[in-house]
Design a protein that fits this description.
The chain has helices at residues 30-34, 37-49, 60-68, 80-88, 121-131, 143-154, 173-183, 191-196, 232-242, 245-252; strands at 22-29, 51-58, 74-77, 96-108, 135-137, 166-168, 186-190, 203-207, 214-221, 255-256, 259-260, 263-264. The protein is of the alpha/beta class. The chain folds into two domains: 16-100 and 214-264, D-Maltodextrin-Binding Protein, domain 2 (3-Layer(aba) Sandwich); 103-212, D-Maltodextrin-Binding Protein, domain 2 (3-Layer(aba) Sandwich).
């Protein structure tokens, strides 16, 4: 049985001989979990590896903090700058790219700031700021939040100086989308979370396609030299599985309404 929540645990029992599967803990982003992809991958991992992967579902920043503390065996996140700093500081043995999708800008279908006609993602944000149109930021140190802040920097705008039209909610992607829906506001989402979101109402995907919105997910095993108790061997087996053709078929084949949510781009080593 797979249970979901703010901190979600996937607990699967081995059928053969009634033996409990070997366990490991992985911190993953809310966008990965909310997409529903974990419901596809975790049972397959258990069947193929006899490995019960327990997911701690948090933002990227919190996931990396759990890794630094040795509270998980690996992390799966999407903020390259933070990931590379995590590896450089010795908290992970390496960084392995697994899959990608992209970020998209969501807003009221009538698009009061006219972002659908923007020439780039930064210009789209400038249009929102100049219109003073409501904008919801996750504000939670997640990979999505970090990407949003990078776009504001590219637009030479500082959210700290924004007025009441800019609302930082300090929560996950689903909550941010629900807040944007309630406020008739703009927000930024990863594509998978938007496709899975069930409360769209009059909201629409208004801008996408800028190369800066590329959204890479990577797997980082926690370094056993920092935390000797972490489960290195199961972590290596999971990494091999995530980079395999078996994972590629499942990840590339996961669609909603004909739309692919992620694209597998791991290379076997």
């Amino acid at each position: 049985m797979i249970r979901h929540g703010t901190i979600a645990f996937a607990t699967v029992l081995l059928v053969a001989a009634g033996v409990r599967a070997e366990t490991m803990r992985v911190a993953v982003t809310t966008s990965f979990h909310n997409s529903g992809l974990s419901d596809i991958l975790l049972p397959a991992i258990e069947r193929d590896l006899g490995l019960d992967v327990q997911l701690l579902v948090v933002g990227t920043g919190q996931a990396l903090r759990l890794g630094r503390a040795g509270d998980v065996d690996a992390v799966l996140v999407h903020s390259r700058r933070a990931e590379e700093a995590f590896v450089a500081s010795g908290f992970a043995t390496h960084r392995r790219e697994i899959m990608y999708n992209d970020f998209v800008l969501i807003g009221p279908g009538h698009d009061p700031a006219g972002i659908a006609g923007a020439s780039g993602a930064a210009e789209a944000l400038v249009r929102i700021a100049e219109a003073g149109a409501p904008f919801v930021s996750r504000g939670d140190d997640s990979g999505t939040h970090e990407k949003e802040l990078a776009l504001w920097r590219a637009a030479r705008r500082n959210p700290e100086g924004f007025g009441t039209w800019y609302r930082s909610v300090g929560s996950g992607m689903g909550a941010a989308l629900n807040t944007a829906r309630a406020m008739n506001a703009y927000t930024m989402s990863d594509r998978a979370s938007w496709l899975k979101f069930g409360n769209k109402g009059d909201m629409a995907l208004l801008y996408s396609g800028d190369p800066t919105l590329f959204n890479q997910y990577a797997y980082l095993p926690v370094n056993p030299e920092r935390h000797p108790h972490v489960k290195g061997a199961p972590g290596r087996r999971l990494e091999e599985w995530l980079t395999s053709d078996r994972a590629r078929v499942l990840i590339d084949g996961y669609t909603l309404g004909g739309d692919r949510l992620f694209t597998h781009n791991a290379n076997a080593e």
